[in-house]
Fold:
Amino acid sequence: MQRQALIFGATGAVGRELLKLCLDGDRYKRVNVIARRPGSVNHEKLHWIEADFDVLDNLEPVSGMSEGDAYCCLGTTIKAAGSEAAFRRVDHDFVLNSARFARRCGAKQFSMVSALGADPDSSTFYNRTKGEVEAAVAAEGFSTLRIFRPSLLKGKRDEFRFMEEIANGVSLLMTPLFYLGLRKYQPVEISKLARALYVTADEEGTNSAHYVIESDEIQTY
Structure:
């Protein structure tokens, strides 16, 4: 237990699950969280740092991260953000700022949550934004980069997402199809995504430093 973790987005649904795994497990001696608001979790290993994601350049780097793991669970929806510009600020700018801060801290491994269909050449704004930030983070040069592309997420959230609830309901009717080659589109439990983030950070790498974990593979964790 010598490594440290650095988590961005630990107050969201996926981030909270990941934080619990990092605190309860014996992998990390210290778990650092960068968040915009105070935390309600108390733990001897937890180091909570309040900071705005648009000014991370002004934040003192976290020491001891050279052998640590950085995780980014930041993300919103266009509806929740209020506009496409506000959505991009979170899902592109804040994510990239987090990656750059993690690099300044010396982290060599970075795991980030993206989305199914991420593609910088997509005609869909949401998918294009996700694809563009994937490419931008990849250019930061982490020794190991893991990008997770889940389908719709299901589980307890702070806010009600109407379209997500509708889609999850429809998915129940489509369950047989998920086992006929369409499992990539099956909604992913938030807890499974968090576990996939946590478990893979401890896996031996191959010659490739860049991994994309698609939604159907996330389902196996």
Remarks:
- Strands lie at 3-8, 28-35, 46-50, 69-72, 109-113, 144-149, 153-154, 188-189, 210-214.
- Residues 75 and 91 are 5 Å apart (CA to CA).
- The mean pLDDT is 89.
- The longest helix spans residues 84-104.
